[in-house]
Amino acid sequence: MKHSVKRFILSSCLLLLALAPLSRGQGGSEVSPNAIPEAMTTDLKFTVNRLVTGGNLREAVPYLEELIRRFGQTKVAQYDRELERYYYFLGAAWIQSEEYEFAVEALEKYAQRFPKANDAPIVLDWLGDCYRLTEDFRKAATVYENLRAQYALKGAMLDEVMSKEAICLVQLEEWEKVIPLLTQLLEQARDPELRGMAATTLVRAYLSLDQVDKIVQLLPQVMAISQARYDVDFNLMLIRGGDTKYHASDYPNALMLYQLALTKEELLVRLEELIGRTERAIQAWKDFQNIRGFTALKTRLKSLQSQREDLLRRDSFTEELLFRMGQTYFEMNRKWEAFWTFWSIWKTLPESKDARQALFSSFQLAAELNMDSRAIEFGQTFLDTFGLGDYFDEVSLQLANLQLRNRNYDAAIKVVEQALAANPDHAFKDRLIFITGYCLFQKDQLTEALAAFTEIRTHHPDSEAEEGANYWIGLTYLFLQQYEDARDEFSEFVNRYVSGIYYEDARFRLGVAEYGLGEFVAARGHFEKFIADFPSSPLLAEAYSFLGDIAGSDARLSEALELYAQVPKHTSRMNQIDHAAFQTGKILELQGKFGELADYFTRYIQTYRNKGQFTEAIYRIGFARKMQGDFSGMLSAYEQAVRRYADDASALGVDLILKDWVDQSIQTEGRPPEAKLREWLDNVKAQKTKTAWLRYQWALSDLAKLDPAPEFTPELLEFATPAVLEWMGRTTAARNPTLARKAFEKSVKEFPDSLWAGDCILEWAELEAASDQYAKAQALFDRYMTSFPTAEKAGAALKRSADMLVALKKYPEAVENYLRILEMKEWRGPLWPESLYQIGFALMEQGKLQEAFGYFQRVYVMYGGYPEWCARAYLQSGIALEKLNRRREAVATYEEMLTHENLRALEWGREAEKRLAALR
Fold first, then answer.
1. Per-residue pLDDT band at 596 (split at 50, 70, 90)
2. Cα separation, 516 vs 734, whole angstroms
3. How far is 99 from 104, CA to CA, in rounded Å?
4. pLDDT averaged over every residue in the chain
5. Which of 73, 320, 381, 844 has the fewest CB atoms nearer than 10 Å to its CB?
6. Distance (Å, rounded) from C-alpha 624 to C-alpha 596?
7. Tens of pLDDT along 477-535?
8. Neighbours of 814 (CB within 10 A)
9. Phi/psi zone of residue 385: left (φ > 0), alpha (ψ -120 to 50 degrees), beta?
10. How many other C-beta atoms lie within 10 A of the C-beta of residue 464?
11. CB atoms within 10 A of CB 679
């Protein structure tokens, strides 16, 4: 471009030099516009010379037109040269005035009459520019082509003409012609702007001809800064080309084209910058003789403004572009990039039409990439933001499953409730109900879980979730200890479904249900067949454990030992191994094989070390030595274990060892081991080992009865073991019930199988009862019955559960529990007269006076050895008779009661005396 500008300036200067001698030699004067027709030619030339020299080409137009008219008919060579100049300046004047139609007329006449003139190439270049400015791209392309063909253009001018011709051919979509032109231009142009234009335009051509593979080599030039890079149509063509490749499954090329495309916002920023720069260049333009440079600026400004107007009319395609990129990444299995692309759409363009789809895609990809916290966040945001509509059912189901997978059971249930409230006809309603049932099961809300699973069976019999619901119905019955229902469910299940993900487990659970019913023969058969049918099952170890338990209950002890020995061969789970190990220990103890017992647990410790219940094993070894008469060996082993593991809260056997060690020391030496305990306590005080400190305090205070219980703080609960927690709760229940409640709760929750768990439940229940929290207390008493049905205190727990029901005025349920006590001969004793009395009391509270009288009468007739309950029953019998208006019988009852001196002395006897006196 610089060379052509210099050339034009040089030619203009030559013209002026040629005119100057004429003006000076012949003279001349200024001509006004009105005097042009009558003016002398010399004066017209003089005026033109002055105006052109001053750059006032527009004012020179009428003078130039008159001179052209006067010289147009001559054939004199000298006048011909002058005529060429007049046409030249006339065309330049019209261009400067932006009157391009007039400029075309003048320039065409010049080109026809003076094709061999020195400035003919410049004039043709101007002519092509004027055609372009009037959007006559066909004529412009022809002019540029002729210019290249007729004149030996070189350097920057050749490059510019080729670029202009290429731009016109692009507008005409004549891609076959434009490609060689652009290829040559790309190879030879020195101007980076021209090379960038050539590269981007070649991309358009290759896209139009579906030759995307040729674009790759152009990427360096395309990415360079050039005006063509910011052409709207070019960028939209990139997107369309990407779409074509995407639908052809050519995802790498589709992604390349999408990545090349700029968004509307990026284009606007760049266009505003280029327009501002070009406008400032035009405003500052001073080289009025450089017509080509001025024309180029005007052409560029018009093109940029046109692109801006076009872009402003268009909707933003940013989200569509990002969405296409996200889809392409996904199809290429580049899920991380897809995730971040979709997420950016939602984050930066939340109001766009693609926001719902983008957030849904982000949610799905986050879930696939195991970004559960992000997926949960996106899923909940989707439901809360967009509500019912596309993808609602899919998102709510998957979100509920994610919450379930992360064991956020309450959150999963909340999602289900939200989904079904918004859409009662949810496409996956059955599966949502199943999720609810599963979560309720995991929360130990077994009755509610059973209702959910049963709803699927009842209302969705053809559901995909039906098989799972039937399985979980059986399992829920099993956990509710409704073994008969569980057996029936699993029996039906294994007959109906002969394969599937639940079949193997259902076969195993059928045996468990029969075991729970005490149907050991049937259970044994099922477990043996299970082992034969599923030799690689992960449940094999449990099956052997059950068979060992069954053999042990049948006194087939040797067989039980063989079966327990199979357990560690089929599992690495220590809870299963420990069950078999300690059951083996019980059998060896029953057989009196204490030497084998000690050797067995010694091997257990050597094999499993800290992974197993090693301190419990030490306890069993010490017990074996004691039974062999080796008391010193037992005490030595226990003492060593206590000192080594006292501060290890996970070494639960230390509690057992410490208790046995203190008890045996008292039996052997006649006193507790006070000196050693105090020595150990002093050592741990200095070391600030809180678990050991608590254990030694427990031993001194509760086991040895040497010290009062210390003051406890809530912080100590973290370091307390099962025995210590029971002690802390028991000793603080009266003065600090909040701390006691926390101690009991921690023990029951974290150590449900410890020796102290049952006592913690009962003491916790009594604490709640003392606080009038009867419902909580009743639930705890029931829990004890469920967890320890054969324990010595089970009857008392059942009675206290009934008492709580009375306090809650749930009289029928209370009576049912009292009657259960009367059915158990093993509980005969104080529980029976009290239960009879309480039944009478509950009946009387319901207004069933005659029935109540009968139960009260049974107490003092059958259980005279229990004076308190006899006195209570006599008194309530009299009151019942009074309410029945049977006054004489009431008097007789009170008199009969008062004949018993031991009853008369009790408070109920004194009350009877008062009532008798009132009746007389």
1. very high
2. 39
3. 9
4. 87
5. 73
6. 9
7. 999 989 999 999 999 999 999 888 999 999 999 999 999 999 999 999 999 999 999 99
8. 24
9. alpha
10. 11
11. 11
CA 522 → CA 153, 516, 546, 800, distances in Å?
106, 11, 12, 36
Q: What whole-number distance in Å separates Cα of residue 223 and Cα of residue 508?
A: 67
**pLDDT tens digits for 41-56?**
899 999 999 888 887 8
Q: Which residue has the tokens 């008890």?
A: 663
Alpha carbons 256 and 238: distance in angstroms, whole number? 9
- Side chain identity, residue 608: Y
| In contact, 819 and 839? CB cutoff 8 Å | yes
Contacts of 43 (CB under 8 A, 6+ apart): 28, 29, 30, 31
CA distance to 253, 807, 911, per residue, from 837 (Å): 89, 15, 17
Whether residue 909 contacts residue 897, with contact meaning beta carbons closer than 8 Å, is answered with yes
Count, in order, helices (H) and strands (E) of the chain. 48, 0
The amino acid sitting at 695 is: R
- How far is Cα 875 from Cα 915, in angstroms, rounded to an integer? 9
d(CA 298, CA 648): 87
60, 434, 624, 830 from 167: Cα distances, Å: 33, 65, 101, 110
Tens-digit pLDDT profile for residues 784-839:
988 888 888 999 999 999 999 999 999 999 999 999 999 888 888 899 999 999 99
CA distances from 893 to 262, 830, 836, 904 (A): 104, 23, 18, 13
Largest CA distance in the chain: 169
Tokens of 898: 């008062």
Residue found under tokens 């939340």: 350
Locate 513 and state its tokens.
């249900």
- Residues 363 and 610: their CA atoms lie apart, in Å, by 43
* Distance, CA of 61 to CA of 93 (rounded, Å): 7
Q: What is the CA radius of gyration of the chain?
A: 51
Q: Are 916 and 894 in contact (CB under 8 A)?
A: yes
Task: Write out the H or E segment, with its range, that includes residue 51.
Answer: helix 41-53
86 contacts: CB under 8 Å, gap ≥ 6 = 48, 64, 67, 68, 71
DSSP 568: G
Any idea how long the chain is?
920
Q: What pLDDT, on the 0 to 100 scale, is given for residue 733?
A: 93
The position carrying tokens 């006032």 is 56
CA distance 886 to 608: 75
Distance CA 473, CA 483 (A): 12
SS (H, E, C) 866-909: CHHHHHHHHHHHHHHHHHCCCHHHHHHHHHHHHCCHHHHCCHHH
The structure tokens listed for 411 are 């959150």
Given 3-state DSSP classes, what are the helix, strand and coil percentages for the chain, each rounded to the nearest 5?
80, 0, 20
Angle between helices 100-113 and 77-96 (to 10 degrees): 160
Mean pLDDT lowest among 125-134, 304-313, 362-371, 617-626? 304-313
DSSP letters for 330-361: HHTT-HHHHHHHHHHHHHH-TTSTTHHHHHHH
Residue type, 113: R
First to last CA, the chain: 137
b/e 13-43 (16+ beta carbons within 10 angstroms → b): eebeeebeeebeeeebeebeeeebeebeebb
Closest CA to 356 of 382, 384, 322: 382
Rounded to whole angstroms, the Cα distance separating 667 from 659 reads 12
Between vectors from CA 264 to CA 258 and to CA 268, what angle results, nearest 5°?
A: 135
Distance, CA of 74 to chain centre: 91
